[in-house]
Design brief:
The protein is mainly α. It has one domain (30-176). It is built from three helices and no strands. It has helices at residues 4-9, 26-159, 162-183.
């Protein structure tokens, strides 16, 4: 067996070129085999590898473009949402201001309506009091008149005799007859 250092240090020793055989020096043959395999891989694999890298690059660029489009769409939607929010806030402020003024107007209308109703109730109360007073006065007058008539009848009955009574009735009938004739 050869020494490992012999194959690296003694570069002037090469076997004869005319013979074909197996080289038993594992380290030297592995380096040559590796370099040949790497050369073949680089020569033939370069196209496949570049195609894979190009495909990967295209996918990455497509993903970046899609992301940019999505980002622009999101920004556009965000701006639309902000504009809508501003519009809604403005409308809400307008409704709030209109609502407050409407509330104040309704409050004043309610106060005026209540005042009108109170005035009407006061007038009804005064009319009712006046009506009740007139009714009470009329009742008192009726009672006084009734008592006066009863007193007068009592006095007349005690003072009148039959003859005076018949003359008074006759005179009253005569007065009623004269009134009746005037109407016809």
């Amino acid at each position: 067996m050869k020494n490992i250092t012999d194959s690296f240090l003694c570069l002037s020793y090469w076997p004869s070129a005319g013979s074909f055989g197996f080289d038993t020096d594992i380290l030297a043959t592995n380096l040559i085999n590796l370099s040949v395999v790497l050369g073949v891989l680089i020569f033939f694999g370069k196209g496949v590898l570049s195609d894979l890298l190009d495909n990967r690059k295209q996918r990455i660029l497509r993903t970046i473009r899609n992301s940019e489009e999505l980002r622009e769409g999101a920004i556009e939607k965000l701006e639309k949402a902000r504009a809508r929010l501003r519009k809604v806030e403005t409308e809400a402020d307008r409704f709030r201001v209109n609502g407050y003024s409407e509330i104040e107007r309704e409050k004043l209308n309610l106060i005026n309506s209540i005042n009108t109703t109170l005035e009407q109730l006061e007038n009804y109360k005064n009319e009712t009091i006046q009506f009740e007073q007139q009714k009470a006065i009329h009742q008192v007058q009726q009672r006084v008149l009734q008592q006066a008539l009863q007193g007068a009848l009592g006095t007349l009955n005690s003072c009148l005799n039959n003859e005076l009574h018949l003359r008074t009735i006759g005179a009253n009938i005569g007065m009623f007859g004269a009134i009746k004739d005037k109407k016809n």
